[in-house]
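## retry 2 of 3
previous attempt timed out at serialization; input unchanged, resubmitting
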Amino acid sequence: PSASAAATPPTDGGDDEESPFAAQEALKQALAQEGIGALPKLLAVDVAKDGYAAAVAIEGLGALAAEATPGDRAKIRGRLTEILRSEEKRSGGADGRGAAGNAAMAIDALLAVGDGDAAKALAKELADPAIPVHHGTTIVLGLTKLNAAETLPEIRDFAKRVAGERADDDFEKQVLTEASEACEKAIATFAR
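## retry succeeded, writing output
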């Protein structure tokens, strides 16, 4: 065989177990073919071990919530909340970027669930002083969009936290400005 043929990976499927994308592709295929039937597979993904599969699982859980039964929605909401909490804790470690990205996707997926229980779960996360300001801003914007007026106390507390933060550079100032504006809008909307 030629040198270029030797450098080209086989296209006959090869050993998918070796590919870091195998689990990701399997989840994508399950979602496309099984829809809500893929839920157990998505719920079982260990997001700390496989970042590629984590993204598909988290986004898939959010997408499936619309067609899920109330019992399955509760499972989805519970798993997404668990992912958000664990990934926020892990975001300070060696895999900080991946964990922070998973946490951000979990917030978006919980917002896609969009029910009162998801709003309560997000409000609880908003009350955690360890949650990054930018994630808190996303939550506040989402809660406003969901018209989750019952979360007003947590939004007010987050607004106080943001007001007490100190920015060391222009980027941090912008993050705090966006957070303050999101809180002001939510408070004005819900205080009516």
